[in-house]
Amino acid sequence: MSLHLIKLCVGADSIQDLRDWVAERALNAIAAGLEPHSVHTTRMVPKRIDELLENGSLYWVIKGQVMARQKLLKIETVTGGDGIQRCQLFLGTEVIETAPQPKRPFQGWRYLKHEEAPRDLGNLGEDLTALPEELRRELAELGLL
Fold it and tell me: Which of 8, 52, 114, 142 is deepest in the core (most CB within 10 A)?
């Protein structure tokens, strides 16, 4: 079983905001002559890196609900110019929408077990991605999704 990370998507009000951010980072990587990806920097370094890179993802909490995920490609530790060690999470460019799942605010990231992760919308048997994001949120809050 793979292991995942979960993190608040601070500053994003929608999945489209996240997609725009990811696209911008991918274009910056391409301009620098690198493979398209996005990098998210965080302070704490996960100790279970091998499990995370075994098909793990970073699940994003947007406006109080887990709404999307990105595949974890690589995890590196770097030391900034200020001498502080940080962790860089290299993420795939595809933002995969998930079934909305309520999540209370927290700081930093947390591990997320595979069996506790929300399912991808495309795997729910219906084309729920055609529904507007706000409607999916409301349906999830009512326990109907």
Answer: 52
Q: Distance between CA atoms of 113 and 131, rounded to whole angstroms? A: 27
Residues contacting 34, CB < 8 A, separation 6+ = none
Residue 42's Cβ-count burial label (10 Å; 0-12, 13-18, 19+) is middle
End-to-end CA distance of the chain: 25
Interatomic CA distance for residues 10 and 26, integer angstroms? 19
Q: For residue range 38-67, list pLDDT tens digits in order.
A: 889 999 999 999 999 999 999 999 999 999
Task: Classify 16 as helix, strand or coil.
Answer: helix
Q: Which two tokens stand for residue 51?
A: 């499990």
Q: How many CB atoms lie within 10 A of CB 119?
A: 11
Q: Token digits for 78?
A: 């770097």
